[in-house]
Amino acid sequence: MIFNEQPKSQPISRLQVNEAFKRVKANKGAPGIDGVSIEEVAKNPRKYLYPIWNRMASGSYQPKAVRQVLIPKGDGKTRPLGIPTIVDRVAQQVIATELEQIVEKHFSPSSFGYRPNKSAHDALEQCRINCMKYSWVIDLDIKGFFDNIDHELLLKAVQFYTHKKHILMYVKRWLNAPVQLANGTQILPQGKGTPQGGVISPVLANIFMDIVFDKWIAQISPETPFERYADDIVIHCKNIKEALRLLENIKARLTECKLELNQEKSKIVYCRNNQKRQPPFKVKYQKFDFLGYTFKPRIIKERGKIKLGFSPAMSQKSRSRIARELQEMNFHRWVHFPISKIAELLKLKLRGWINYYGKFRMSEMRKLFRVLHNRLTKWVRNKFRRFRKKPWYVGYKYLQKLSKDFPNLFEHWQYEGFRP
């Protein structure tokens, strides 16, 4: 790629733009309002990447509107997702990378979301260990977090870490960029909110929550352990009095920072991990969900002994979401394909589910694969005429025989106990 280097007012190099595009390309994603895809940008970098570098380096870059897409949630509601154009994503990646290098070393070790060398599994493992040590948990839920972040407070949080003019200037422009709705109308953010889907949004959310929550709780209660993944927070307490007091302080802190606690979803949970230890009053909650897993009392084996523990496993909500996804795929009607083709098309999805939800208590995934096997049985009955007038279990037995003869056909059949 050829760039004509000239003295620029902002310290942004062509190498930064090149590296940013590589990361955007690796993450893939849909085009924004201009309809330009990643492939088009890759074919003609001179047309798309040179102007973005030139404008960013001269300070004249202005972002386009963000395309809004409504994503269905498990409770029937929808979540707005903002999709910037590809070149805007490249520009955001340039600043996000620079900002990450500045702020990463200052973040709390208990913050796990969207950070290098940290994952959801790390957060779950730390949460599992703390649930065995502490009897009570505050399961926090912030109402419409990404939609309600105050721009003025967010810019103050960014200024706490850096005073670089080009970073502050472009962050402000992205925050004020209009949002284009599905019907084509454009609306302005009204001084709050950062669109989920933007490359820089996770970094800004982490900076905001680091000031609002992480550093604040380290001051008022330095001994209190917690896990935070973006706006999902789990706090561990020794007793119910400490939990109640801390929850009131958190409510006040969030109100002060122009955020609101979701009263319906936030709760205090008793982590019952011993048959003998029981509180002297009736406990309302004894389980909670965190990052797609349900933490609740379960029988575990530790050092050769069987006892009651408090551990994570795939949540019912996650199973229902995947079951809906399998239903929408309608693969039981793909009778024009052989079963090997169906296995190939499902391979990546199955591997992703096993890698994420199989990390803790993998046996809980049996319920999910039971749903999958029922759908495959439907495919067998639709595909082969000889099974149509017979009971469903005849088709299921055919599937069982297939799993014995070809144990590596489907990704999950390679694991003990997951075959039909």
List the helices and strands and how they pair.
Elements: H1 14-27, H2 38-43, H3 45-58, E1 66-72, E2 78-83, H4 86-103, H5 120-133, E3 136-140, H6 145-148, H7 151-161, H8 165-175, E4 179-180, E5 186-187, H9 201-220, E6 226-229, E7 232-237, H10 240-256, E8 267-270, E9 288-290, E10 293-302, E11 305-314, H11 316-329, H12 339-357, H13 366-383, H14 392-405
Helix pairs in contact: 1-3, 1-4, 3-4, 4-8, 7-8, 7-9, 11-13, 13-14
Q: Can you give a write-up of this model?
A:
The protein has 420 residues and is an alpha+beta fold. The chain is built from 14 helices and eleven strands. It is 46% helix and 14% strand. The strands form three sheets. It has a four-stranded mixed beta sheet with strand order 2-1-4-5, with no helix packed on it. Strands 6-7-3-8 form a four-stranded antiparallel beta sheet. Strand 9 and strand 10 form a beta hairpin.
